[in-house]
Structure formats: C-alpha cells, structure tokens
Please model this.
Amino acid sequence: MSATGFWLTLVGMVAVTFGSRYAGLALHTDLPAFWLRFLRFVPIAVFAALVTPALQGHRHEGGIRVAAAAVAAAAAWRTRLLWVGIAVGMTVFWLLRVPF
Amino acid sequence: MTTSGGRKAAFRRGFWILAPLWLGVIPFAVAYAVTARSAGLSLLETQALSVLVFAGSAQFSAVGLFAAGAAGLEIVLATLLLNVRHVLYGLSLGRELPLTRRERPVAAFFLTDEAFGVVAAARERSFSFLLGAELSLFAMWNLATLGGFVIGAAIPDPARLGVDLIFPLAFLALLVPLVRTRVELVVALVSGALAFGLAQILPGGLPILVTGIGGSLLGAYLTRGTLVDRGLNLDDAAREVA
Model:
C-alpha cells in the first residue's frame, strides 16, 4: 500500500473507532424503563463475554487457565480488589504450568 | 482548590487501578509493534495507529491486512466490526457518569474495554477517574509500541509467557462483585456460554457486541415488572439533574 493509502486508511479507522466510542456517550435521550434495565446489565453481559473466549488460550492450556480463573474469581469475591484477582490468578496459572 | 485536588486524586486512583493490567498490555503492544514492523510499516505509521486508533485487536488485524495487501476499505470495515461494541459501552457509561459536552469526546477517544470495565464496576464514577484509567492504558500502550518497534523481537512472545490471561482474569475480577442476584447470575452464565460459542464462529469484537446485547436483553426481560431497579433510583435521579 502506498503512503497515501496508509494515511487514508488510518483516517477511516480513526473515524469508525472514534465514531463507535462517541456514539453511545453522545446519545442523551430519556429511555423507557426496559432499556434502562437493559443498560444496567451491559457490564455483566460484556464482562462475561470478555472472559470465556479468552480462557481458551492458544497452547492447549484451557484446563489450567480455567482452574486459575476459578481461584482468581474466589479471590476477587473475597477481596473485591482487581489486582488481587489478577495476581492470584496469574500465580496459580504459572504454578500449574510448570509441570507441563 | 479542593475540587482540583479531588480531581487529581480521582485521576490518580483511576490511573493506578489499571496498573496491574500493564503486565498484559506491554507484551501485547510489543507484539503489535513487531508485527507492524514485519508488515513493512514505518515507526511513524506504527505509532500513529497506537496514538490515533488505540484499539489493540483492530490494530493487529489492520497490520495483518496491510501485510496481506488488503484494500483500505476492507481494513476500515474490519476495524468497525471489531470496535462497534464501544457503542454499548458509551450507552452504559453515559447513564452512569455525569459528563459535560466537552468531556464526552475526550472520554470517547480514549475509551477501552478495560477503562469501561473499572468504571462500570467501581463505586467511583467521575470523569477524572475514567480519564485516569483511560490514560493509564494509553500511556503504556504507546510506550510499549515505541519500545517494541525499536527493541523488537528481543522481548518474548506474550502467548508463550501466558500473560494474555491477565485480560480475562481482570474482567472476571470485575464481574464477580457485580453478581448479587439470581437474575444477574443467570445473565452472567448465559452470556459467558453464548460468547464462548460465538467466538468459535465470529471474529474478535463481534461476539462481545452480540453477547452484550443478548445478555442485557435477557436481564431486562427477566427483571420485567420491577418498577425501578434497586439502588438505581435516587443516584440516577440525582445524576440526571446534575
């Protein structure tokens, strides 16, 4: 691709990315109760969707990744701290990984 | 004076709350820079994508497509498919966060899954807290892009280290405290299963978008008849007024 082609493509990428990021924030209308409840569930549905596909991994480590995630979930439940969940999960993962 | 101190403190809390994710972000950005470099992009081009697009999976797919000689329009469409889920984040944040007209484009430009995640899960909701979280990732993503391009392959592959696991762990840690009722548990489990299934057949961002919509519809349907959501009313009324 030519240099001009690259920069034109970049402009398009910025437009669709910023457009997506801005559209939801900019929309400020009164929503019916159903859609207010809908939006309350967005974080739960989205977080779950960001977890499960990424647990598979690429190196047939699905089993120990899921085990690490289970311990991390328990740690997050007890402490409610993001960094503790991550630290505990990664520690378990690396420990389980060693023998394989 | 007090307000500015409060804002700075909120910014710092947002900035540091995402620090554990740097361990995942840095190798990811390095891998992106190395891929971009081998796809024939210059340092300026590689960095421009990180500064102006600032979306990991879209940048990865773009450099792959550049290398494959894809047309610009294809790359832009792939970017849209990967990033359109942010509409959902904006809609959710727009309800939870009081943002001024001037703050909205700034908050939007730096928005990521992770920044949305901590703000949606935190009790603290302010523009400064959000911006701190957003710029925490932006700074690391861009520094590591630069470092990765210059130092390159000397840094080990993130998949080999397994640090990519940090991202699902982070979202799991954010999710767990949010699940307090049976309906919330059902929505979380169904969404997790749905996304897993969809990820086998759809590219990157789409399973998140489809699941985000589907899971939230399920939640709204299952809570039908509840006049107003618990915990929502007074705060939200106050925020609407503000």
